[in-house]
Amino acid sequence: MTELKDLNTKEIPTWCPGCGDFMILASIKKAVADMNLNPSEVVVVSGIGCSAGLPHWIETYGFHSIHGRAIPVATGIKLANHGLTVIVVSGDGDGYGIGLNHLIHAMRRNLDITFIGHNNQIYGLTLGQTSPTSTQGAKTVSTPHGSIETPINPLSLGLASGATFVARGYAGNTTQLTDLIVKGTKHRGFALIDVFQPCVTWNKINTFDFFKQRVYDLNSEKFNTSDLNAAFSRCQELGERIPTGLFYQTETDTYSDDLPQLKEKPLVKQNITNVDIKSVLNKYK
Amino acid sequence: MILMKDFVNWKIGGEAGYGILSVGVMFGKFCTRNGLFAFNSSEFPSLVRGGHNTVQLIVKKTPALSQYFEVNLLVALNAETIEKHLNELSSDAAIIFDGKEIDIKKYKTKKSHVLIDIPLTEIAVRHGKKIMRNTVSLGASIALLGLEFDKLEQLIKEAFAGKKDALIPINIAAAKEGFNFIKNRNIKFNYQLKEQKQKNHIFINANDAFSLGAVKSGLKFVAEYPMTPSSSILSFMAAHELQYDIVVKQTEDEIAAMNMIIGGGFAGARSLTATSGGGFSLMVEALGLAGMTETPAVVVESQRPGPSTGLPTMTEQGDLMFALNASQGEFPRMIIAPGDVTEAFEAGLNSFNFAEKYQLLVLVLLDKYISEGNTTVKEFDYSKFKINRGKLLTKAPKNYLRYAFTSDGISPRVLPGTLGTVYKANGDEHNEKGVSDESEENRIKMMNKRMKKLDVLKKELPEPKLYGDKNAKISLIAWGSTKGIILEAINELQKQKIKVNFLHYNYVFPLKEKKLLELIKKSKKVLLVENNMTSQFGKLIAQETGILFKNKLLKYTGRQFYPHEIVNAVRKLK
Ligand SMILES: Cc1ncc(C[n+]2csc(CCOP(=O)(O)OP(=O)(O)O)c2C)c(N)n1
Ligand code: SF4
Ligand SMILES: [Mg+2]
């Protein structure tokens, strides 16, 4: 049995007190415990940013990589050993900015990875610059006159890119978030979970209060999560009421399913001691 | 008296899309099966169709180690071939051309040239399609050189077997007609080849040779984004992915490719990426991630001339300094620069052992010249090869520390999934456990630990090989793909009674100095040879030993050296 306490580390998080990242960490731990995953069979992969410290504070294997590259690192890990549970934690700069190319391709690839986007709509670690998801008009240290660009909507991007599991959580609702992480991790394929994560230090617009007034659970009403068009239209609701929950889920083959090379066992379990190259060598004669 | 010659330098030229590359490889294989040695090189612009393409094949009774300048048999599929390459012809060279398409009188050919007007197009079209002119001219070429037809027939069968069976009889018929065209005429040609006894030879280029070695050494994961001249590694791997259970992923970009193999290596699969300079530029940040997390990774960088897109289908040794210094900070890496296809195979075999044993980044520098230059060599010997995964543990010891300090700097490694422990791979400076640690004390210890691996590796590496006369007073020094050209030059110099020796670096970094220092002490004249403008290897040697080279032969036209250029430079040494 994996218990919550088994996932505690000696090291303690260095996030600002009150940061939404604490609740995401708690939800991930709870989800891993609830699913009774062996911590030694879980790898949490991050890039760079405040969120990227997370692997250090959960007692599983972890890879703290470089800015924007958590997804390709995780892809390599999963392809090498698809027996592992691979969870990517990323930020809005990390995942939707510098690493966006990888995210889009990962979604259409449908490798069995769970992606958790710590979306604080700001660059936290670098002290408060605008991000790809910053609200239009947001004044930050890099946009003192207000951000001009239209923000990225990670959910519609996911739906358009062929993601097979698209959800939105809110750090302020860990029960729902835990449930989404459990569902996303159990989902066979790529799970995109965008999470509203208030940054108490730099983002004075998208605060806990801001979300508390607006968020509601999409799945508490009769919502068909296999309806792509409905998901598209509901994820655009970003006004006075903002839906959270599971927007879309569909089952297709995962990337690994379609690789006959992986049918018998993961790459890392295959015997490499006696590879016979004779027949190929003979073609050069 | 006519001096008969038992070699030939054959060149075929025409537009891209004329099937020139494939016929070059077929001819090389044909010669190899005849027990002869062939070396092929090609020159083509960055176009899929059109432009001027040439393929050259030197064929000899003894190992053919490089391209040659002087052409003895020119097959001109268009007029441009004659225009551009007339000046390369030996005085007794032959030209095969189609008089209906090329007015040979327009060109200043010599009386001594053997002009062979064959209705290539008419024959090709009659049997099938115009593209088969390549097969017709190949049939004619082998007849002219005095070789038998049967092995060509077999090769054509193999080339089209399977999907394109219908092409077999028509190609054989076309080749045969080209062959008979020559046989039915009494043409005197000074260059005559004879079938030789030696067998068990293969005809292969460095990309394929490296790939085969990598497969043999247990490669399991390839992530690559196509870029000339490395792309054939991707297609080789893809073609064999099911046979060897290798996962081959064409990625969204080279950043992804490099980071994916870091993930693959971390998880425990022998992982490879390959690229050229432009893609390598994109990988740079991740190289340091491999260094910092001590993740085994093998990267092939097949060089082409930069900067930027440069000369995308040509060759240069221009990226050594870049490979040595790419990525911020200081971390250990290893650089191998195979000098020929056999060394490329060995690099494929051994890179993963080095990468896993020392838990570091191994860079293999090839270039267009050897990546695509097929060579006849003895079948590769891998009978002594053993997989060495270094300090890889299947069970975690008590209180396991992933980055434990050890006397050789190498820490025992367990793979994620190993029960009873967990750890973090961390691109931030970290302590033995992998936890971020910015203290001065830890920083020094960790830097020393990682760099220690380089010292240990250096001790294991062989000294560079010395070729030629040990006691010669003239020494050549080079690295990577200039090897064969210099060896041919040494043979030529020997004939001219000039004694030279040659120190060749296959393992470029960490740099072994002992033999170099001895040689430089003994030699009167030392010439550094590099296919770049700024003598990058010379800079590395200066950096590591303080030695500065007075004499340098540098070529940066985007083409590789010819042996005669080396010979001339040696003769001019003061
Ligand atoms: C290649 C590169 N460019 C820039 C940086 C500096 N940098 C570190 S974190 C970061 C932004 C992080 O923002 P986000 O992903 O939203 O994470 P947050 O800190 O908000 O959780 C930047 C620009 C870097 N580490 N690497
Ligand atoms: S800067 Fe913002 S995101 Fe980063 S730890 Fe502090 S509150 Fe959290
Ligand atoms: Mg952010």
Can you describe what's shown?
The complex is a heterodimer of chains A (285) and B (574). Chain A is α/β, with parallel strands linked by helices. Chain A has a single domain (4-256), classed as 3-Layer(aba) Sandwich (Rossmann fold). Chain A contains nine helices and eight strands. Chain A has an eight-stranded mixed sheet with strand order 2-1-3-4-6-5-8-7, with helices on both faces. In chain A, α6 (174-186) links the parallel β5 (165-170) and β6. In chain A, α1 (21-34) packs across α6 (174-186) and α3 crosses α4. Chain A is globular, with a radius of gyration of 20 Å. Chain A starts with 20 loop residues before the first helix and ends with a helix. The model of chain A has no long low-confidence stretch (mean pLDDT 97). Chain B is α/β, with parallel strands linked by helices and 574 residues long. Chain B folds into four domains: 8-199, Pyruvate-ferredoxin Oxidoreductase, domain 3 (3-Layer(aba) Sandwich), CATH 3.40.920; 203-378, Rossmann fold; 391-460, no CATH class; 465-573, Rossmann fold. Chain B is built from 19 helices and 21 strands. Chain B has helices spanning 20-33, 79-85, 120-127, 133-144, 150-160, 167-183, 206-216, 231-239, 241-244, 254-267, 277-293, 320-325, 341-358, 368-372, 440-460, 483-495, 514-522, 536-545, 563-572, and strands spanning 8-16, 37-43, 50-60, 71-76, 89-97, 114-117, 201-204, 221-224, 247-250, 271-275, 297-303, 333-336, 361-367, 375-378, 424-426, 465-468, 474-479, 500-505, 507-509, 525-530, 551-554. Chain B has a seven-stranded mixed sheet, with helices on both faces. The longest helix of chain B has 21 residues, at 440-460. The two termini of chain B are 38 Å apart. The model of chain B has no long low-confidence stretch (mean pLDDT 96). The chains are: A alpha/beta (285), B alpha/beta (574). The interface between A and B is large, with 51 and 71 residues. The structure holds thiamine diphosphate, iron/sulfur cluster and magnesium ion.
